[in-house]
Amino acid sequence: EMLGIGSSVRNQAGAPAANAPQQAFGAERFVQPVEQCEFTLTGILEQLQRDPWPVAADRRALRSTGAAMAVAVGMMESAFPNAGGRIMLFCGGPATQGPGMVVGAELKEPMRSHHDIDKEADRHYRKAIKFYEALARRAAAAGHAVDVFSGCLDQVGLAEMKSMVNWTGGNMVLTDSFVTAIFKQSFQRVLDKDEAGDLQMGFNATLEVQTTKELKVCGMIGPGVSAAKKSAMVSDTEIGVGGTTAWRLPAVTARTTVGVFFEVANQQSQALQPGSRGLVQFSTTYQHARGDYRMRVTTIARSWAEGASPDIPASFDQEAAAVLMARIAVFKAEAEEVGDVLRWLDRMLIRLCQKFGDYRRDDPASFRLGPSFSIYPQFMYHLRRSQFLQVFNSSPDETAFYRHCLFREDTTNSLTMIQPSLMSYGFEGAPAPVLLDSVSMKPDVILMLDTFFHILIWHGETIAEWRKAGYHEQPEYENLKLLLEAPVVDTQSLLVERMPVPRYIVCDQNGSQARFLVSKLNPSTSYSSTNQYGGGEAVLTDDVNVSTFLSALSGLAVKNAS
User: Fold this and answer.
1) Less Cβ around it within 10 Å: N or C end of the chain?
2) Cis amide prior to 223 (ω within 30 degrees)
3) What is the pLDDT of residue 539?
């Protein structure tokens, strides 16, 4: 009402009669179809310039980001309630005044760190979280998505604003500046259109789950909020956003992925009929970019099996299981201590190995896992070391960005985040995937690392010296030129289809940027150990390697196993 956009303004006494000349009330004064204001809007964008108001050397610029978002959410929920819409925030620095402020205006007050948040030493963090969560609930209830584009070398408050993006299905892009290719290309992909000229996005979606009586719904982890739909299918055990069988997803794309968790009800009270099946139905209703509403229904049937049936291990999807466990772990890490989450992960892995492993009691050397489980422990090893759970050397904003991407990407991309892929290029053969291990770092090869967030091309010491000497520019060394070009060509397809656009890095062995590769490798060769394969570069770390991790796991799995 204070802004003149509330419903009471339209219905107040003295309102014009129906046959009176049309007068702009409320939101119509601020929101118009683009075809009616395109010239004015283009003029405003072209005339945008840096704020000329001087900022003292010992102070930050004054930004009222929270107030601006409150106005935007208020306008959108008044003008277009329960209709598709997006609010885009371009943030060049932290909010320094008003509601939702992240840090004070004086530079002597540092930005909060993970340590400050854990110790509750930052006086703005909790209040800002509460403020932005309230805005996120309002935007989600109205069916509107919030996108946040950060273009700043310092933190801007993504850790506080993450709920506005995660709960509404929006996009989060973290860049150093708004002039970088990462921002420009990511922003263009948000507004990509299909062959028919429609935006490649859906709005105001609702996902509803129906199951047979043997199953109950525990919850959902993904870009949405609860629709508060109660039924007999709701489980008492909550995983993620639980207590409901329906969720609102204000914005969806062809890449949007959610994880829905179930439990088997009445496991002991009634026997299952031979050949019986459990049914799960997913019903998704969304508003297409053209404005019409569409529904997609998917029904799946799965046969029941007893606990000791060989069908259970044979049908285990270790890749999907690793991604689902990662989502649960990261969701728990938002509210619990990381150490507690890591211990929970370890307990769950040990229980799985005890149940499905083949071993003799108290004999670690006899432990074996079937092919359906063989690489699952490696996924858990890399998850424990990943930036999702190990926040050292990451700012709160970076951690919020990494976790946001994990909550919305599909299995393939999520696995790339957990255990990056590594390709090797050499003279001895065609490009081939190699172990994510320090043994793969050889002086006469080129490595391409894909972590989803970064795409890195690493030149071995010998290759780098040849390149610096200019051998690839000489006709007789055409094979070296082709070798240098091969990983560059292969990265282009990844850069084209990835959203947000990953950071592209080219580095040499022992260079400063090589740390992005070294930090992801299994340290089979370190200053305190040598690897069984020979070769490779030593990694300076105290982390245990995969072999040590698996040995400890097999020892715990066979110990006191029932």
Assistant:
1) C
2) no
3) 75
